[in-house]
Amino acid sequence: MNSKKITVILLVAIVAVAFLFGMNVYQRRVENAQAEKVSQSESSLVRAHSTILGPQDARVTIVEFFDPACETCRAFYPFVKDLMKKYPNDVRLVIRYAPFHNGSDKVVKMLEAAKRQDKYLPVLEMVLAAQPMWADHGNPNVELAYQAAAQAGLDIKKALADAQDPAIDTALRQDIQDLTTLQVTKTPTFFVNGKGLPTFGSEQLAALVAEEVAKSRK
Can you tell me where the transmembrane regions are (predicted)? Predict the structure, then answer.
């Protein structure tokens, strides 16, 4: 290998290391800023209207900022369910909404209305199952989401009427305000007992939940 090739390889390696270092520094700054926001406003994580799945008095709380049109949220849903099954008495899930995609706000309001028919969970799961059909980000077809909800047993006519309740709009606006306060910019975003993930990923989420469960049992 001649000296010119060695120089090029070294330069590429230096640039790559500098890029990774810069990304790491940026990520840490974002995480630290978010952690500071959480410490300043813990009430922003869980509100009275928030949907809670699992034991209400669980000592470990996963807060998920969630968009029903988000593919990654859909992919994580079974993983989060498995975590709750693994710790049935220790972990609860709090769902907060981050309707970043077009049409998501309408689906969120329909989900909230589904609570009044005690159909929240089956409707949520059916809407996620049907997500590839209705959640085209450029041209969402919310009607297909409604049809999926009806297949889960929801009285869709009543639900859409209930979805006009100002209380549901107020709850959604509160969620949007909180995600802004906490600097949540993507979905899903998880907090476990108020702590953000060190880096995004299912293994990181499982590790943080296991850590908090172990602490809670001491």
Answer: 6-26
For CA atoms 203, 184, 181, 123, give the dihedral sign: negative
Q: Are residues 166 and 92 in the same domain?
A: yes
pTM above 0.85, yes or no: no
Q: Which domain holds residue 139?
A: 49-217
Alpha helices, DSSP H, located in the chain: 3-40, 71-86, 104-114, 120-129, 131-134, 142-151, 156-162, 166-181, 202-216
Dihedral pair phi/psi, residue 69, rounded to 5°: -95, 0
216 or 39, which is more confident? 216
Residues 35 and 79 reside in one and the same domain: no
**Hey, is 67 helix, strand or coil?**
coil
How many CA atoms lie less than 13 Å away from 10 in the CB half-sphere?
7
When pLDDT is averaged across residues 77-95 and rounded to a whole number, the result is 97
Task: Give φ, ψ of 190 to 5 degrees.
Answer: -115, 145
Do 128 and 168 lie in one domain? The reply is yes
CA of residue 202 relative to chain centroid, distance: 12
